[in-house]
Amino acid sequence: MITRIPRSSFSANINNTAQTNEHQTLSELFYKELKDKFSGKELATPLLKSFSENCRQNGRHIFSNKDFVIKFSTSVLQTDKKEITIINKNENTTLTQTIAPIFEEYLMEILPQRSDALDKQKLNLKSDRKEKEFPRIKLNGQCYFPGRPQNRIVCRHIAAQYINDIYQNVDHKPHQDDYSSAEKFLTHFNKKCKNQTLALISSRPEGRCVAACGDFGLVMKAYFDKMESNGISVMAAILLVDNHALTVRLRIKNTTEGCTHYVVSVYDPNVTNDKIRIMSESKEDIKHYSLMDFMNVDYSLLKWSNDHVINQSVAIIPALPKEQLLMLKGSVDEITPPLSPATMNLLMTIGQNHQLTQLMTQLQKMPELHRTEMLTAYNSINLPGLYLAINYGNADIVETIFNSLSDPRYEGLLSKKNLINIVEAKDKNGCSGLFLAISRKDKNVVTSILNALPKLAATHHLDNEQVYKFLSAKNRTSSHVLYHVMANGDADMLKVVLDALPLLIRTCHLTKEQVLDLLKAKDFYGYPGLYLAMQNGHSDIVRVILEALPCLAQEINISASDIVDLLTAKNLARDTGLFIAMQRGHMNVIKTIFNALPTLFNTFKFDKKNMKTLLLANNSNEYPGLFSAIQHKQQNVVETVYLALSDHARLFGFTAEDIMDFWQHKAPQKYSAFELAFELGHRVIAELILNTLNKMAESYGFTDNPRYIAEKNKMETLLKKASPHTAR
Q1: Which of 299, 328, 357 is the last residue of a domain?
Q2: What's the pTM?
Q3: Which of 278, 399, 470, 474 could make a disulfide contact with 448, Cβ separation 3.0–4.6 Å?
Q4: What phi and psi, each to the nearest 5 degrees, are found at residue 100?
Q5: Domain boundary among 311, 328, 345
Q6: What residues does the ShET2 enterotoxin N-terminal domain cover (predicted)?
Q7: CA distance 556 to 516
Q8: Number of other residues whose CB lies within 10 A of the CB of residue 476
Q9: Residue 92 gets which letter from DSSP?
Q10: What is the pLDDT of residues 274-310, one digit of tens each?
């Protein structure tokens, strides 16, 4: 029978027995007691005695209780040495000391190990492992989503399907035959489980928590208390452990004899037979169980289970209707997990902000090496906790981390290299958290990051190059994230980023070259994002950039030539995006640019040379987009180009000679626009060009200009003749 000292009385006992030196922390006193015990000194050890009577083993080298955590690890600086870390939860202090390996071995022997020999009969518990009825079957990753052979069905999807079966079946029991083979499972599987899993993890229901795997039974007991007081007889929850997912089912059964049974069943798609079920007539007995008691692994999976399941923290996410979830509020608030990378990773993943906020304060008192380890919080497949928080849309978690790190109390606690590694939160392919958030169109997460960045940079004295690299957020192919935003036409997300730029320029001192590079957003092959936006007809992208330019110009000196370079959007082959837009007839893109000409003139001192460059945007062979539009019978484009010249020529100071130069501009093939239209037999376009010229001559008063008269007569003479081609 396991007995425990009440945690409240234990805390009082520590405070009463350990105040021997006002200049020493309790962690230091505790370490002194451990050394005295190892040295064989016959001295009183009240802290060690109380800890030994009340501690729980949370991992192979982690012991904890309400007040202390003791962790053993290999020294980073001296690989032949060990380190002991003592964390005082009450004082928020951390002590790390280098020790000899023999000292660690001795302490591991005297600290109480987790007992697998728990007397189930005395606790009136029954363990049910149906090994003979259902053979071991590993479903995790063994089959694919129907019709999508590239997407495996993995543990979290199977766990969600198991939860569905719990609630859909009359007896609240999944039919184990459905899980006895991959073939049978596929005929039973609901394809919606992928979205259901994401929704469950991201929904932030009440009653969720992260706890030490050794405290799994304590959490189950707390749930049973709430279930019983609110008349809930069955509850399912998804369990997240490192990079693995399981399902737990809690059931309160009232027998015909008037007895109440509390049943906990755990199903694991990876390492158990069917399920492991433990039943008790007392809720109090349930709390003595660890997650280890529900694992049934063979030798080949033993190390994996020890490293990544039973020796880590576990996130427990109840799955109940919304009105019932509210009944779980406060059920597990007092259960605190051990401070470890696994805990931090799960807290960020499931969005437990109040627990994370408490731990962020404790981290300030830890050595930088351990602090960095906690904040990066990698899981076993090298996914950082912050990356997972972003993946599941936990904007408040992201805000808490960035704001906590921006706190002046964190100044000097992290090297710039470690800080950038934490906030970039790159996955194993080099994709950063900011890239993920922007590509997932998560405005809340992106806004949280960008709003916190100025203060973060100020606190840790980041220079403009470091901020610029963070904002560049490239993927593994070195493509800028804004390239994908522009190529896909996500104008709303682009606006979120551009709206944040003026403050970042002002506070982080970004240079003009850095800002323009962000706006160009080139991919690995040198294609600007705006080139793809114009090619795909995304006029909203062009509009958002044009609207942002005046605000950006208040912070940096953007010239007219910079704007022309940006808007023509040349690739490495010198083809321009505006040329492609004209060729393909993307009228909205063309009109958006030409309608902005007055603003560009007033704000950036655009001149007629700049305007002409846009009107005659060309490809690498200096072939204008206007001519390509004529060639492809894009009459609306031709009309829009000439109309833009007609509307804005006076504003930009075009003379009669300038207008005639434009009309008589020849492509490398020595054709003017009119001659090309006539040569190709596009008579309607040719007449449009002539009529527009006549109207401009009248409007601008150069009907007596010799060049105009000669050009007009030439056009009219050609139109009176039959066109060389019959195509219209």
Answers
A1: 328
A2: 0.76
A3: 399
A4: -75, 150
A5: 328
A6: 130-379
A7: 10
A8: 13
A9: T
A10: 677 888 888 888 888 888 778 766 655 666 666 666 6
